[in-house]
Amino acid sequence: MKAQSIAAATGVGAVDLAVTDADRALRFYRDYVGLASIPGDGPEIHMGAAGRELLVLHPGAARPVVLAPPSSTASRSSSQTGASSRGSSRGSPVCSGTSTRPTT
């Protein structure tokens, strides 16, 4: 089967994340992911690379999203799967959701 390609003009816009802890999210995306802050208006934190906006952090999320483990692994103990009992979001910013905006 031949793979179909998408139009060359197709692109991805910046990702918007609502975060519960803006300072923690900023440090994570700056220090671990390597994104730089981009000046912007309002309380949002704009971040990107090579002069392109890739991420907009929206402070003030009411609560973090808690993801349940997949049902196939939920019944296994952590010793069987090699996983720790800690949540997967430990050490990374806690987000309440994502959305995308069209490219401009």
Helix count, DSSP H or I runs of 4 or more residues? 3
Count the E strands: 5
Strand residue content: 25-35%
Question: How far is the N terminus from the C terminus?
Answer: 34 Å
* Secondary structure category: alpha+beta
The low-pLDDT segments are 76-92
The dominant shape is extended
The Cα radius of gyration reads: 18 Å
Strand order of the largest sheet: 2-3-4-1-5
In N-to-C order, the SSE pattern is EHEEEHHE
What is the averaged pLDDT score? 76
* Major sheet description: 5 strands, mixed
Helix content: 10-25%
Task: Give an account of the 3D structure.
- It is a single chain.
- The chain is of the alpha+beta class.
- The chain has a domain of 55 residues.
- The chain is built from three helices and five strands, in the order βαβββααβ.
Which key terms come to mind for this protein?
single chain, alpha+beta, 5 strands, extended
What is this structure, in a nutshell?
With 104 residues, the protein is α+β, with helices and mostly antiparallel strands. It has helices at 22-33, 71-74, 78-81; strands at 15-19, 36-38, 45-49, 52-59, 95-100.
